[in-house]
Amino acid sequence: MLRYVLTRFAIWIPSVLIVMLAVYALAFYGAGDPIKLIFLRAPGDVAYNPQRIEAIRESAGLNKPFIVQFGLYIWNLLHGQFGNSLTSGRSVWAMVSAAAPVSFQLALCSIILTAVVAIPLGMIAALNQNSRIDYAILGSALLLWAIPAYVAGPLLMVGLIVLLPGASVPYGWGGILDVRILLPLLVLSFQPIALIVRQTRAAVIEVLSEDFVRTARAKGVPEIVVALRHILRPVLTPVVTQLGLIMITIVNGAIFVELVFGLPGLGRLTVQALINSDYPVILAITLIGSFLVMVSNLLVDVLYPLLDPRANDSRRSR
Amino acid sequence: MSFDQSDKTNISRRNALKLGLAAGVGLTVFGMNARIVLADEGQVLKVAHPAFDQDWSPLRGGGRTFRWNSIWWAAPMYFDSEGNIKPYVFTSWESADNTVWTFKIDPKAVFSDGSRITAADVKGSWEVASMPNTKSQRADQVLSKVKGYAEIAAGSGNELTGVATPDEGTVVVTLAAADPIFFMRLANHIAPITRASQSRGSDGEEIIDWYKPDSQPVFSGPFKLTSIDIDAGKLSFEPNENFFGPKPKLARIDITSIEDNVSATSLIKSGEFNAHTELITSTIIQDLGPEFSAGPLIPTSQHFWFNISRAPMDDPKVRQALIMAVDRDGLFKASYPDGPHKKADQILNSVPGADNSGFEPYPYDPAGAKKLLAESSYGGPERLPKILFVGISGPAIQAAAQFIAEQWRQNLGITAVDMKPQQDSYAGPDQNSVQIFRDDVGTRVPDAVSYLAGSIASTSSNAQNKLGGYKNDKVDSALAEATTKPADDPQRIALAQQAQKAFRDDWAFIPWYSQAMSRWATKEVKGLEKNLDWQIVEPWNISIG
Fold first, then answer.
1. Dist CA B541 CA B526 (whole Å)
2. For the segment B229-277, what is each residue's pLDDT rounded down to a tens digit?
3. ω into B340 cis (within 30 of 0)
4. Beta bridge mates, B93
5. What is the pLDDT of residues A264-281, one digit of tens each?
6. pTM of the entire structure?
7. DSSP A97-119
8. Which of A309, A303, A317, A243 is nearest to A4 (CA)?
9. Which residues of B touch A179 (CB under 8 A)?
10. A55, B233: Cβ pair inside 8 Å?
């Protein structure tokens, strides 16, 4: 197992290097010079001063050739230095480590909410296949899937103000125990809930036709026991795997939710870094994203046999 | 009494549910309390800030954070909302030759710890603001003519050799060239006065985070920064009890980053916030009332600039035809039907000389425009290359650009028009074919010459970049002569007007609108007038209710 994990890490390192090289090249050759961006915001560009811009560029090392800059970045990274933000001068590590816990907490809550809501709904839909309940659940899931976060967020926020005059606007971050988290959590969970409902429903329908379910029912086991003990357990394995993958999507993709509801997480930081062409911050976030993907894939691979003993048996039989 | 060990370790399902319910209720109440604590009433100005800015150094000289400089820093002098110059740290200014200027510091001017603001602090503040690594966006507007500035800006020096401090209360500035309005350039918060020993390191560079409460800084303005959470985007300011000016009326100013305009509007409507740094939405008047964004016109204006070196703008008749084919009343109505801005006919606005400047507005003459296009070297619309606009970002700008394109289609038969939002960084395949740049031009001092020097003089960035290397000797010589005249000399204004008239004859832009300085505050907020520098004129006068 250890060898397997080490091999995966060894494969991950060149993959990440390629990703970093691509991101660095896009930032380097693409539109948006961070130093010019700082200076070209004055009315009429009267603050534009090529001499001054060149002096700043030189002090930030941005006048060096592409490959030298990239090499220096990787060298610093190997020494645990993520560098400083080009626009604020702050340590990138400090910025990312302040933002990441917010995104992770939010993602974790979203996953829990998704599991608590979506798995039972998916089961209910499957157990009432082709009934009105099934159609209602499936239809709702489709609706949730179709509404993007940048539409749902502002709509719910404005709707709350219209429906409940005097209610506080849910804005800002006070931790996962703060009531303000409810609305962003809902918005963030819409699409994962829709996905898991449909996946659970499909998996349950498949399991319903299995012999062991028919046997349990034939033995007179109560329907609720059949559902929870015989159907739910085999269904959980792929669903939990999917939930793990969704978590990455949520951490990486909470941009609109974090902007609309003022949550100081990675999404918000990403937008700010992109607007400012702040390469060190963009690269650090990219690195975290690719690390998350790698770790979750690794965890899924490692945990799969633990979740489903049959997978372990098949590996042993090989 | 017997004690069943299994009861101790195994919790029943019913009890688990009860426990879960109690925990849920407890956590919810805790969460609600956390929200209630945040609510605050009274004389607290709650400001929504549109960007998650991570750099609040007062020495940056530009950007959105700069717009709050006057609440916590003092300036040499300041312009009031009427455009009159007022003493602040400096009580007097004089120059016999417009090259050597002497300024006297108010003996009562002190920092928040009660210590005196000295000439050394003024010199040090200007020097650190000029250092390239400080990344001040506008230090050059204030200090570029001071001896030694050019070396600092180029990274080869760290001292303003032209600034002398003969005593604690006197600053003598020697300029590289005479500038009759130098005193006006200082009257802003672009390079505010800080304690130099705190803001500047031994290497001459700005000390990172020197202004944060953890560094125990001293402040020169009416409020002091008491807390800052950069990662959450929150700042709080409280009155500076040693402020040498009038006592502030507010108990606190809270600034919170709210990037989303819908959220910001909702928070202002619900009363949780009462001001904004810069809220621009197409429905702002419907949402928050006309008072929210109302304000006086400032010397900044928006236009569509023609790159005269690129086809088809290289033909003056084409340029003239394109301008005359646009009904500019309609153009303004299409973009800002409810204000707060005002239609512009010329570049100059809200500076001495803007009225009766002699600049005759461009006529709307579709028939004349069609005739000119036919007479041009292109012979008609079918032989014109595609016309490409950049800087078309935001609903109002899009409406304006689409109106222009539609006028050209109807009046001239031009159909090949394209628009891109990017401006300075436009990097599409047609990058070298962009002929029209939508952009603003302006000045920070109420002076016509300064306004035009930054927009139509051949040395300006606008002329070099957006106008495609525009150069008109009549314009340049009139402005060059005007800069030597004192601020109150009628000749200075007359020469500026003459330059603008000469520019008119080159048909190089479509005038659009003169910008209003919006309050961006609810009507309950009083005393929030701003000056040309986007600063609150007298922050000590702000009150609520």
1. 8
2. 988 899 999 999 999 999 999 999 999 999 888 889 989 988 889 999 9
3. yes
4. B103
5. 888 888 888 888 788 888
6. 0.80
7. HHHHHHHHHHHHHHHHHHHHHHH
8. A303
9. 28, 31-32, 34-35
10. no
Cβ contact, residue pair B272, A85, below 8 Å:
no
Instruction: Please tell me chain B's helix, strand, coil percentages from 3-state DSSP, rounded to the nearest 5.
Output: 35, 20, 45
Query: Which of B128, B124, B125, B108 has its CA nearest to residue B116?
Result: B108
Element (H, E) at B203: none
Select from A28, A33, A37, A46 the residue whose CB has the most chain B CBs within 10 Å, as the one to mutate to test that interface.
A46
Interchain CB distance below 8 Å, B133 and A98: no
DSSP state of B463: I
Query: Which is more confidently placed, B8 or A240?
Result: A240
Which residues of A are less than 8 Å from B46 in CB distance?
none
Dist CA B348 CA B356 (whole Å): 11
* B137: nearest CB among A38, A85, A268: A38
How far is Cα A266 from Cα A95, in angstroms, rounded to an integer?
9
Nearest to B407 by CA among B488, B310, B333: B333
Q: Residue by residue, what is the 3-state secondary structure of A248-302?
A: HHHHHHCHHHHHHCCCCCHHHHHHHHHHCCCHHHHHHHHHHHHHHHHHHHHHHHH
Contact assignment for B272 to A168 by CB distance below 8 Å: yes
User: What is the average per-residue pLDDT within A242-268?
Assistant: 80
Residues in chain B within 8 Å Cβ distance of A274: none
Q: Do A169 and B272 touch (CB under 8 A)?
A: yes
Residue environment code for B457-469, b if the CB has 16+ CB neighbours within 10 A, otherwise e? beebbbbbbbbbe
Is there a contact between B145 and B83 (Cβ–Cβ < 8 Å)?
no
Q: What angle is formed at CA A21 by the lines to CA A15 and CA A26, rounded to 5 degrees? A: 130
Q: What interface predicted TM-score (ipTM) does this complex get? A: 0.77
State which H helix or E strand residue A222 sits in. none
Contacts (Cβ under 8 Å, ≥6 apart) of B243: B112, B221, B222, B540
CA pair distance B433, B426, nearest whole angstrom: 11
For residue B331, give the nearest of B407, B274, B235 by alpha carbon: B407
Q: Under 8 Å CB-to-CB from B341, ≥6 apart: which residues?
A: B297, B302, B513, B514, B515, B516
Distance between CA atoms of B172 and B123, rounded to whole angstroms? 10
**Residue B108: count of CB within 10 angstroms of its CB:** 11
The answer, for A177 touching chain B at a CB cutoff of 8 Å, is: yes
A161: chain B residues, CB-CB within 8 Å: 266, 269-270
pLDDT for B377-428, tens place per residue?
A: 999 899 899 999 988 887 888 999 999 999 999 999 999 988 888 766 666 7
Is the pLDDT at B8 greater than 50, yes or no? no
Please list every residue in chain A whose beta carbon sits closer than 8 Å to the beta carbon of residue B154: 51-52, 55
| Model pLDDT, residue B30 | 45
Residues 86-125 of A with CB under 8 A from B: 87-90, 95, 98-99
The DSSP line for B65-134 is GGGGHHHH-B-SEEE-TTS-EEESSEEEEEESSSSEEEEEE-TT-B-TTSPBP-HHHHHHHHHHHHSGGG
Of A36, A177, A260, the CB nearest to B31: A177
Sign of CA dihedral A62, A68, A71, A77: negative
Q: What is the pLDDT of residues B165-187, one digit of tens each?
A: 999 999 999 999 999 999 999 99
Segment A72-91 mean pLDDT: 84
CA distance A83 to chain B (A): 15
Local confidence band at A90 (pLDDT 50, 70, 90 cut-offs):
confident
Query: Touching check for A222 and chain B: CB below 8 Å?
Result: no
| CB pair distance less than 8 Å for B132 and A59 | yes
Are A33 and B425 inside 8 Å of each other by CB?
yes
